[in-house]
């Protein structure tokens, strides 16, 4: 009896969870309520079948359980039962599939007044194209795909010149206006899917698929790729913004035309051809999907100010970002993974010229600027009495502003005829003191000179300190009794 009771309780719990579950569909934002209706029909039919089959199994276990004195009846065929099973199964399958066929037929048959928008998918980014004032899109072909023409538009087609290009994963639509989406993929199988619109369509390389919808409410809705298109599939995200008429017209007015982009690329190539080629390569190869150029966080390290920094890797090592580092990393991105990022960057098939162009573009996005240091503060030692006999020089401790600037590059000593050249200042030796002596420091701490202030932490070891830098003041040549000694400029040791 325990198994039938368990099956019955399981069925009741799952049915209750379905109705009381917090996970429901997102609010509908398009005209495709029929999609929800077909889904409801499927859930009802499969739910009824699930309940009926499991309750029948529970009843059969109880009804035909073993009992002393009872024998099972052997019945190899039951035509009446088979007819009922075949008939009910056929009706259920037809009821699930037929509504979907009618809805799909309407999905690919847009109305005559629908606006046209082209959607292009590529690992792992979205691009869009809108027609010009004539409402027509020009022709395209994969043979025209270049770094400065990622959509492969025919430059000789006059209908392409006024087409507006959206080289960003953000598409704006007009609320209440039907839109026909022409979908194509440049590399692998993708799928354009906006959950609140309830519509999705595969994007197959080598062909153009289509669907249509009418946005019914304004807002921002996520674009997802519903096909596993590679390691960056989860990051192939975009946004559809549904606007009212004024906002939509203002957005369209900001979009560049294909002719304007071609002229812009030609001008950029004339001023800095290598960096311009690298920028186009970054867009064409999908680098912009993971690496931002404005400093905002992304899947990979931002390129803004990347050049010249020091990157720390997951294994604890670090490296300076220069041309050699970028070339090695792009060639083999998973050999050393930067700390805080996942090893998902694929290897790019780049020629040596393309690699140099990409590095030149990253270099133009800025180099790491060292933190501003306080201007050098001159140090004036306390004046000695006029009649004092010159004795041994006493060390002068740097000001806090000078100590804070120790991490900066070395500054050359200013030319001064009153200064006597001396060797560069040196740190005290880092000799650990004996841990057993009274009042000694831990072995990881260096011995401090008698009477000096606590040391500064070393850059690579927060548990180790060194005494502050001391610079002896310069003595004037032929000093005049009673005159103030000259100022001594600050000397920063090279890191």
UniProtKB/TrEMBL annotation:
Coiled-coil intervals, chain numbering: none
Membrane-crossing segments per the record: 40-62, 83-105
Gene Ontology CC entries for this record: membrane; periplasmic space
Main location group: membrane
Recorded topology in the membrane: Multi-pass membrane protein
EC number assigned by the record: 7.1.1.9
Entry keywords, A to Z: Copper, Electron transport, Heme, Iron, Membrane, Metal-binding, Oxidoreductase, Translocase, Transmembrane, Transmembrane helix, Transport
Annotated Pro residues bias: 372-384, 469-495
InterPro entries: CcO_II (IPR045187), CcO_II-like_C (IPR002429), Copper_CuA (IPR001505), Cupredoxin (IPR008972), Cyt_c-like_dom (IPR009056), Cyt_c-like_dom_sf (IPR036909), Cyt_c_oxidase_su2_TM_sf (IPR036257)
Renumbered residue ranges of the record's region Disordered: 369-409, 421-495
Domain Cytochrome c positions: 273-366
Reaction it catalyzes: 4 Fe(II)-[cytochrome c] + O2 + 8 H(+)(in) = 4 Fe(III)-[cytochrome c] + 2 H2O + 4 H(+)(out)
Molecular function terms, GO-annotated: copper ion binding; cytochrome-c oxidase activity; heme binding; oxidoreductase activity
Pfam families assigned: COX2, Cytochrom_C
Family matches, as PROSITE patterns: COX2, COX2_CUA, CYTC
Sequence ranges of Low complexity compositional bias: 385-395, 429-439
Compartments where found: Membrane; Periplasm
GO BP annotations listed: ATP synthesis coupled electron transport
Domain spans labelled Cytochrome oxidase subunit II copper A binding: 112-254
Similarity comment: Belongs to the cytochrome c oxidase subunit 2 family.
Name the UniProt record assigns to this protein: cytochrome-c oxidase
């Amino acid at each position: 009896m325990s198994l039938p009771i368990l099956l019955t309780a399981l069925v009741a719990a799952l049915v209750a969870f379905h109705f009381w579950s917090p996970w429901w569909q997102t609010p509908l934002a398009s005209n495709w309520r029929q999609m929800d209706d077909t889904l409801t029909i499927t859930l009802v039919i499969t739910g009824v079948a699930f309940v009926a089959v499991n309750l029948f199994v529970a009843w059969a276990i109880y009804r035909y359980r073993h009992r002393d004195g009872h024998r099972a009846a052997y019945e190899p065929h039951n035509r009446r039962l088979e007819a009922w099973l075949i008939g009910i199964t056929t009706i259920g399958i037809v009821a699930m599939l037929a509504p979907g066929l009618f809805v799909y037929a309407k999905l690919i048959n847009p109305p005559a007044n629908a606006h046209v928008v082209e959607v292009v998918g590529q690992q792992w980014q979205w691009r869009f194209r809108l027609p010009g004032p004539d409402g027509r899109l020009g022709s395209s072909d994969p043979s025209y795909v270049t770094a400065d023409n990622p959509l492969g538009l025919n430059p000789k087609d006059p209908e392409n010149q006024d087409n507006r290009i959206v080289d960003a994963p953000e598409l704006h639509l007009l609320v209440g206006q039907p839109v026909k989406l022409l979908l194509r993929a440049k590399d692998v199988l993708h799928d354009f899917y906006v959950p609140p619109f309830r519509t999705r369509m595969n994007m197959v390389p080598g062909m153009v698929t289509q669907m249509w919808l009418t946005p019914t409410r304004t807002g921002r809705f996520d674009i997802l790729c519903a096909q596993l298109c590679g390691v960056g599939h989860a990051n192939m995200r975009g946004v559809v913004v549904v606007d009212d008429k004024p906002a939509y017209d203002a957005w369209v007015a900001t979009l560049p035309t294909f002719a304007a982009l071609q002229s812009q690329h030609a001008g950029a190539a004339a001023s800095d051809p290598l960096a311009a080629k690298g920028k186009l390569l970054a867009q064409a190869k999908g680098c912009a999907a993971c690496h931002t150029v404005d400093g905002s966080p992304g899947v990979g390290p931002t390129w803004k100010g990347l050049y010249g920094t020091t990157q720390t890797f997951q294994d604890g090592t670090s490296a300076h970002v220069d041309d050699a580092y970028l070339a090695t990393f792009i060639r083999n991105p998973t050999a050393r993974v930067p700390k805080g990022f996942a090893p998902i960057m694929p290897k790019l098939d780049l020629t040596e010229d393309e690699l140099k162009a990409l590095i030149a573009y990253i270099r133009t996005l800025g180099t790491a600027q060292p933190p501003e240091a306080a201007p050098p503060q001159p140090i004036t030692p306390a004046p000695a009495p006029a009649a004092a006999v010159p004795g041994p020089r006493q060390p002068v401790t740097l000001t806090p502003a000078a100590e804070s600037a120790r991490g900066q590059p070395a500054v050359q000593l200013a030319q001064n005829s009153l200064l006597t050249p001396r060797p560069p200042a040196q740190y005290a030796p880092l000799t650990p003191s004996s841990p057993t002596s009274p009042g000694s420091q831990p072995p990881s701490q260096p011995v401090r000179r008698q009477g000096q202030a606590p040391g500064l932490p070393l850059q690579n070891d927060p548990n180790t300190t060194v005494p502050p830098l001391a610079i002896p003041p310069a003595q004037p040549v032929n000093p005049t009794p009673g005159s103030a000694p000259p100022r001594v400029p600050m000397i920063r040791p090279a890191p």
